[in-house]
Amino acid sequence: MTGKWLNNTSSWLFPGCCVLCGDPGIRNLDICPGCYADLPRNSHFCRTCALPLAGKPGELTCGACQRTPPAYDRCIAPLHYRYPVNHLLTRLKFHRKLPHARLLGTLMARWLAQSPRPELLLPVPLHPSRIRERGYNQALELARPIARQLRLPIDTRSCHRVRKTAAQSELNTELRHKNVRNAFAASKQLPAKHIAIVDDVVTTGHTINELAKVLRQAGAERIDVWVVARVPLNP
Q1: pTM of the full predicted structure?
Q2: What is the rounded CA–CA span in Å between residue 152 and residue 144?
Q3: What angle is formed at CA 144 by the lines to CA 140 and CA 145, rounded to 5 degrees?
Q4: Which element (helix H / strand E) includes 63?
Q5: CA distance to 5, 11, 15, 150, 151, per residue, from 1 (Å)
Q6: CB 159 within 8 A of CB 215
Q7: How far does CA 233 lie from the centroid of its chain?
């Protein structure tokens, strides 16, 4: 109890600095009120894949999801993948800026607080060789503050990346689909029926869809996808 009181007092007396402008941050967040207000919200989107859509907000489904529904039930992406979100995620993913995961994961937990709760979080797995190169899995780092605030377990054992793939960011849409085919394998029986996949960003959706297919085959009945940001069709 004493430790918690000291942590709360410290956060009031010494607020974090904004990672974008250096001003004092909001309590327990490394972002100031101005930069927080300027984050590019994904307020009008496909209710299935979270693709940003034009027009007035509403319960819409994009043409791609109408033609071929994905293997998951719903993707939630609170932000657009543009500055400063793309800057924060790139620094997290490739430059070891792990505090960005704490900030973005904490914001995700706040935005997801009213969403249906899964039984567990499953960060998108990286191949062991990629883990050795990078030293960490950015999806897992984002999942940690979400799990802590929403009191959800993280599962890193039920699914693995069994095939080393090229970086999706370096490929076009057609090659992205081929690149992740048969890249994942899951346990024969998952420990939960309702799972939320956690990742940093969705571009074409091929990675999360391939992972969702594997989880379906392993017994998942509802699969949500929780990501920080969604890339529009014409970024």
Answers
A1: 0.89
A2: 9
A3: 140
A4: helix 63-67
A5: 6, 16, 21, 20, 19
A6: yes
A7: 18
Tokens of 50: 């979270």
Only one residue has tokens 């907000």, namely: 57
DSSP 8-state symbol, 116: P
- The CA angle 189-192-195, to the nearest 5 degrees, is 115
Q: Which two tokens stand for residue 162?
A: 């069994």
Q: What is the pLDDT of residues 136-158, one digit of tens each?
A: 999 999 999 999 999 999 999 99
What domains can be seen in the chain, in order of their start residue? 1-38 (no CATH), 41-230 (3.40.50)
**CA within 13 Å, CB half, 219:** 10
Per run of 10 residues, the mean pLDDT along the chain (length 235 residues) is: 44 70 92 97 94 76 94 97 97 95 97 95 95 95 98 96 71 63 87 96 94 95 98 76
Within a 13 Å sphere around the CA of 116, how many CA atoms are in the beta-carbon half? 12
